Amino acid sequence: MDKTLCYSFQKTQLKYMEAQGICFGMNGNLAAIHNSFENVFINQEAETIFTESAVDDYWIGANDLFSPPTWTWLNESPFDFSDWEKGEPQNISMSNCGAVILQNGRWKSDDCYKEKPFVCLVKPDANPVMSTTSTSGPTTTLTPTTTTTKKPKPKSCPVSWQYYNTTGYCYIVLGGEFWQDAEQRCVISGGHLVSIHSLEEDLYVTHLVSGAPAHGLYGVWIGLYTEDSNRNWKWTDGTPFDYHNWRADYPVNTGLQSFGDLITGDPNGKTADWINVHNYVWKNTFICKASPK
Hints:
Distance between the termini: 52 Å
CATH topology of the largest domain: Mannose-Binding Protein A, Chain A
Structural class: alpha+beta
Strand content: 25-35%
Domain C-type lectin: 2-121, 166-274
CATH architecture of the largest domain: Roll
Protein name: C-type lectin domain-containing protein
Radius of gyration: 21 Å
Number of domains: 2
Order of helices and strands: EHEHEEEEEEEEEHEHEEEEE
Helix content: 10-25%
Shape: elongated
CATH superfamily of the largest domain: Mannose-Binding Protein A, subunit A
InterPro entries: C-type_lectin-like, C-type_lectin-like/link_sf, C-type_lectin/snaclec_domain, C-type_lectin_CS, CTDL_fold
Keywords: Disulfide bond
Number of helices: 4
CATH class of the largest domain: Alpha Beta
Pfam families: Lectin_C (PF00059)
Number of strands: 17
């Protein structure tokens, strides 16, 4: 085990990317595990620290969010060790984040939007505010006291809309319309077709529509469009095109005009990735995004 690294066991139950945000704030990442000794050590500590949390598992840094079905670590270290439970990881949609089963220390894939405790791997020179607990292993376990400043929840979103604290926006799933008609319905409702600016927001939107009707493979409309054969992509709400999650070989050239579609229904595809299509092909479920009032 690398003695220059420390583990922080966090009892607070968070979604995968929220947990990663806490770890990143401590100059670390969700834990990467590179041998059986580290795996056993982490789970022994977790069994003690998480015993009062009434949970069955906890997040680590394993995921296949970026290049499924290839699993990687969030800290970009080599994925040179694994200890999957029998039948894991599951190659199904919305099962892209890795967790460790408390009972036996083996790994499972799970929905990134489930809330679990988690383990961070941080450098000791990160200097977080902390209380230090010595362990029987060669590594010191750090339990940082972190303060997360969140945007205050607004007094209200429009009726039936969902507020997402991370972005400070409201969202609703509707359907089905052609792309232009979907955008018009969003505008009438006080917003636009959803713009997406981070992986976390991408996963949130995908999770939001997971229980809504979808049209086979082709997911839901988002506010992405081009009018110049893919040279410039824009969001209908005018926000910057500063994030994308195209499926392999996309965007394709469909002519001058093309529209973004968020994949939600393909069990073999990358979670929350995008394709582009002609508007006239089908009516579709769609997501609106608006500022809270």
